[in-house]
């Protein structure tokens, strides 16, 4: 746990850009939220966390309220602009020139980020809280796996929470527990309806920055309403849908948990497209991760498909999901490489009599095992994502 003073010693602000910590902080190296030290008296620094970014303004929640202000609306000092220092939601920052009465200030320095995600754009997040329901909607292991893989791909800790346990028997709950433990997870079983397990969730969110995720209807909003008192939610967020504004894909805002910690809800994160290199996929299945820790595949670039002497392929429940997602990740990689080289999408075909015509290239050999239907669906989603992103203001 670092203190404000530790942070002051490692400030980057004027000393260059953010370290490229990407979205893959190594497992086991997961940061805790900084302890609530606000005003570093020796240097009179005002320190806080950026909880929202709106146009060129940053809403900064101070570690400790000063005078009557607990948040300040800040601009970014021009010297940060000059060095290209971006300010993200979740950033720990130093504020200068506070105007306590007007509630204004200027972000002068940004502490080095411990983690950084780009979709949603959030710095220093510690964990993903993945919420599913056991019933209504019935828990679908395949969909759960997709969300788990997406959550794992952030490099953050993954906390799985199964809601609506009031709708199933204890026997059913235990069956799910055993099954998920075999996958490598220790889920929290909760019921927002009856209150079971909510305190355990609170404990796990304490002093951390948590990104909540999960499909529609599982009870995320109901859970958020339990965790954050009505009074602290801003107008427009009272349904429990935190920060769901016009910019659905990238917009993210942090909300204060009364027991300590911050919670972010980003609807874009609830469309779990698998947008990472195929080689990484095995790392996102705890079962595969474990096999790779215990053994080594014959080929260093093994995709764990049908290569000889592979330690990953084999008899584990989610191996078929692995294979399906692998194909999807390969398609995505191919799509990206075609984006960067548009000519590669088309080939010139002779139509006879000296005429030529551009036609889309057929899939390359390594992707042929993908079914047409599967490919079509996924590409449609990829194109949609791509267009959506193009249209985003950030
Ligand atoms: N039986 C039961 N119903 C619950 C529980 N938690 C939530 N619900 C109900 O499930 C329905 C969906 O809950 P929401 O909180 O709106 O779900 P959501 O995940 O926010 O859904 P989206 O807004 O579509 O993302 C509501 O009718 C809730 O009352 C629970 O623990 N048990
Ligand atoms: Zn292998």
From TrEMBL:
<dbReference type="GO" id="GO:0016787">
    <property type="term" value="F:hydrolase activity"/>
</dbReference>
<dbReference type="InterPro" id="IPR012340">
    <property type="entry name" value="NA-bd_OB-fold"/>
</dbReference>
<comment type="function">
    <text>One of several proteins that assist in the late maturation steps of the functional core of the 30S ribosomal subunit. Helps release RbfA from mature subunits. May play a role in the assembly of ribosomal proteins into the subunit. Circularly permuted GTPase that catalyzes slow GTP hydrolysis, GTPase activity is stimulated by the 30S ribosomal subunit.</text>
</comment>
<keyword id="KW-0963">Cytoplasm</keyword>
<feature type="domain" description="CP-type G">
    <location>
        <begin position="114"/>
        <end position="272"/>
    </location>
</feature>
<keyword id="KW-0479">Metal-binding</keyword>
<feature type="binding site">
    <location>
        <position position="302"/>
    </location>
    <ligand>
        <name>Zn(2+)</name>
    </ligand>
</feature>
<keyword id="KW-0547">Nucleotide-binding</keyword>
<keyword id="KW-0342">GTP-binding</keyword>
<keyword id="KW-0690">Ribosome biogenesis</keyword>
<keyword id="KW-0862">Zinc</keyword>
<feature type="binding site">
    <location>
        <position position="310"/>
    </location>
    <ligand>
        <name>Zn(2+)</name>
    </ligand>
</feature>
<keyword id="KW-0694">RNA-binding</keyword>
<feature type="binding site">
    <location>
        <begin position="163"/>
        <end position="166"/>
    </location>
    <ligand>
        <name>GTP</name>
    </ligand>
</feature>
<feature type="compositionally biased region" description="Basic and acidic residues">
    <location>
        <begin position="353"/>
        <end position="365"/>
    </location>
</feature>
<dbReference type="InterPro" id="IPR030378">
    <property type="entry name" value="G_CP_dom"/>
</dbReference>
<feature type="binding site">
    <location>
        <position position="304"/>
    </location>
    <ligand>
        <name>Zn(2+)</name>
    </ligand>
</feature>
<feature type="binding site">
    <location>
        <position position="297"/>
    </location>
    <ligand>
        <name>Zn(2+)</name>
    </ligand>
</feature>
<comment type="subunit">
    <text>Monomer. Associates with 30S ribosomal subunit, binds 16S rRNA.</text>
</comment>
<comment type="similarity">
    <text>Belongs to the TRAFAC class YlqF/YawG GTPase family. RsgA subfamily.</text>
</comment>
<keyword id="KW-0699">rRNA-binding</keyword>
<dbReference type="Pfam" id="PF03193">
    <property type="entry name" value="RsgA_GTPase"/>
</dbReference>
<dbReference type="InterPro" id="IPR027417">
    <property type="entry name" value="P-loop_NTPase"/>
</dbReference>
<dbReference type="InterPro" id="IPR010914">
    <property type="entry name" value="RsgA_GTPase_dom"/>
</dbReference>
<feature type="domain" description="EngC GTPase">
    <location>
        <begin position="123"/>
        <end position="270"/>
    </location>
</feature>
<keyword id="KW-0378">Hydrolase</keyword>
<feature type="region of interest" description="Disordered">
    <location>
        <begin position="347"/>
        <end position="369"/>
    </location>
</feature>
<protein>
    <recommendedName>
        <fullName>Small ribosomal subunit biogenesis GTPase RsgA</fullName>
        <ecNumber>3.6.1.-</ecNumber>
    </recommendedName>
</protein>
<dbReference type="InterPro" id="IPR004881">
    <property type="entry name" value="Ribosome_biogen_GTPase_RsgA"/>
</dbReference>
<feature type="binding site">
    <location>
        <begin position="214"/>
        <end position="222"/>
    </location>
    <ligand>
        <name>GTP</name>
    </ligand>
</feature>
<feature type="region of interest" description="Disordered">
    <location>
        <begin position="1"/>
        <end position="36"/>
    </location>
</feature>
């Amino acid at each position: 746990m670092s203190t404000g003073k530790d942070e002051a010693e490692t400030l980057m602000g004027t000393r260059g850009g953010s370290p490229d910590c990407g979205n893959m902080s190594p497992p086991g190296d997961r940061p805790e939220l900084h302890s609530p030290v606000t005003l570093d008296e020796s240097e009179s620094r005002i320190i806080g966390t950026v909880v929202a970014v709106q146009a060129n303004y940053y809403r900064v929640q101070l570690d400790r309220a000063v005078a009557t202000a607990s948040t300040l609306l800040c601009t970014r000092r021009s010297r940060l602009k000059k060095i290209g220092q971006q300010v993200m939601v979740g950033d720990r920052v130093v504020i200068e020139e506070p105007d306590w009465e007007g509630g204004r200030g200027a972000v002068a320095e940004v502490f080095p980020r411990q983690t950084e995600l780009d979709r949603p754009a959030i710095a220093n997040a510690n964990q993903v809280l993945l919420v599913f329901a056991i019933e209504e909607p019935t828990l679908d292991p395949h969909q759960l796996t997709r969300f788990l893989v997406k959550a794992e791909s952030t490099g953050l800790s993954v906390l799985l929470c199964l809601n609506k346990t009031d709708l199933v028997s204890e026997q059913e709950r235990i069956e799910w527990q055993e099954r998920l433990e075999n996958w490598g997870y220790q889920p929290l079983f909760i019921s927002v309806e009856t209150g079971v397990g909510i305190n355990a969730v609170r404990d796990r969110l304490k002093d951390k920055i948590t990104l909540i995720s999960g499909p529609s209807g599982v009870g995320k909003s109901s859970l958020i309403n339990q965790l954050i008192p009505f009074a602290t939610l801003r107008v427009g967020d009272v349904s429990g849908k935190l920060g769901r504004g016009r910019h659905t894909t990238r917009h993210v805002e942090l909300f204060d948990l009364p027991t300590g910690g911050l919670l972010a809800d980003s609807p874009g994160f609830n469309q779990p497209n698998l947008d990472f290199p195929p080689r990484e996929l095995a790392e996102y299945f705890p079962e595969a991760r474990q096999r790779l820790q215990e053994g080594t595949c014959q080929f260093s670039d093994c995709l764990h498909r049908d290569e000889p002497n592979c330690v990953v392929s084999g008899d584990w429940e989610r191996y078929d999901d692995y294979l399906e997602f692998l194909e999807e990740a390969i398609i995505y990689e191919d799509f990206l490489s075609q984006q960067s080289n548009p000519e590669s999408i088309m080939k010139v075909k002779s139509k006879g009599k000296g005429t030529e015509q551009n036609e889309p290239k057929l899939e390359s050999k390594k992707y042929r095992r993908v079914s047409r239907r599967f490919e079509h669906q996924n590409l449609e989603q990829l194109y949609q994502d791509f267009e959506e992103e193009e249209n985003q203001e950030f």
